[in-house]
Amino acid sequence: MGESGAGPGTVRPGGRTARVRAAVLQAAGDLLAERGFDGLDLAEVARRAEVGRTTVYRRWGNPSALAADLLSDMADQSLPRTETGSLDGDLLANARLVQRTLADPRQGRLFCALIAAAECDERTAGALHRFYRTRIAEWAPCVEQAEERGEVPPGTDHAEVVRAVSAPLYYRFLVSGDPVDVPAADRAARAAAAAARAGAFTR
Predict the structure, then answer these.
(1) Span 15-74 CATH architecture
(2) Contact call for residues 27 and 45 (beta carbons, < 8 A)
(3) Is NADP among the key words of this record (predicted)?
(4) Tens digits of per-residue pLDDT, 33-82?
(5) What are the structural domain ranges in the chain?
(6) Overall fold of domain 80-197
(7) Where are the beta strands (DSSP E) in the chain?
(8) Helix, strand, coil: what percent of the chain each, to 5?
(9) CA distances from 123 to 83, 133, 152, 153, 175 (A)
(10) pLDDT in tens, 139-186
């Protein structure tokens, strides 16, 4: 659900290849945040990453492939779920993580660019869908545990509850222009928890 930890391109073990990838993805993320998908120029990415153009073109080839790799890296680095011991606490933690991500000047613009690109680019769309499936799968066990504790009815769709938390925040972010602030996050979490307890998400 959004929600990267370290920024895209954080250096990880793996030698020069990993360092080049990290630098390129960091530069790509910066450029996407600044200019959107239409401004994702591979030559400019290479310049900012201080690597050869040939390296960038040979490994990624086009902006779609680079955006897809960036999303894959973001999924790998996403923060783990928070487990508070209650459905309300867990969903509140999820909502506030989504809120912080969308309200962050760089991360918010980056997600906006990637979501916009996914509307017209099939490869980016596939990578974006995989990213969100990964995030939903990370948080769904919180609802599963709530079901085991008897907080929600048997047969509750765990993933749907998680989607219900972030959906109002993305609506504000992408459609209405209303603030994506902490009160909005808290309302989204409380509404999803109440609906789940009432059986709205049973299969």
Answers:
(1) Orthogonal Bundle (1.10)
(2) yes
(3) no
(4) 999 999 999 999 999 999 999 999 999 999 999 999 999 898 888 878 88
(5) 15-74, 80-197
(6) Tetracycline Repressor; domain 2 (1.10.357)
(7) none
(8) 70, 0, 25
(9) 33, 15, 37, 38, 23
(10) 999 999 999 999 999 999 999 999 999 999 999 999 999 999 999 999
